[in-house]
Amino acid sequence: MTQRVYWLAAITFLASVCVAQNVTPQSGYVAEIVANGGNITGTVKWSGPTQKDLSMPVTKNSDVCDPTNQKSRDLERLEIAPDGGVANTVVFLKNIVKGKAMDLPAARRSLNQKNCRYEPHILLMPQEGNFQMKNSDPILHNIHMVGAAVFNLPFPTMDKVLSRPMHRDGVVDLKCDAGHVWMNAEVLVVAHPYYAVTDQHGSFELTDVPAGEYVITAWHEGWKIAREEVVIDVDSHQDVRRPIFSEPKTWDTRVNVPPNGAAKVNFEISDR
Length: 272
Known about the structure:
8% helix; single chain
């Protein structure tokens, strides 16, 4: 096989991987000192009818998973505050190629499994960073990752910590294969630092943004159960039914960041 054919085969393979994982390749981001940068603040608010609460019964290890005896667990797919703010929405700048060094919040860069819940629910990991995961429960958990990273990791002992590299940017979906079918979280592996996750009131802030005009995006993981799948509980070896959620949604707008100034962007999202 000629060198040209080898290269064509390699390019075809890489393209097929990107399509399979729904990952868009991004050109290299250059970190540099940002002179005369500005900030972007804003909110993500819900518009439209109230959505049905998504919850599932706690069917296993209730002494650990349901210590307050609530009988069910909120799936945390759509968190709307009384003021309309939507938590756990990721807001980011599209196609920014240079700016500040990577400074994603430490609280969003590692995962804890506590009371059969993933904490936090939305995570941000720098591309090529090491994703640390811990089990704080005295029971078996098993993190199953699909998407931009694919791993299947058992946590048989309490306080066990594992670390895995995140080589490719994109979304990683987390589920528990140990029968705790309500456990779910999303990891966004990102190539630049201009990402933020909205707080409980839907507020966000991006800092030290180079002056200029940008497309800014609000990304939400999706808030409906699209279907269920039957999987094997690796602990009991029994079939269990696990929810598969609807596709993520995005909203775009433009923002102009003045030198040494501030810009404000407010998103309204809905089921429409």
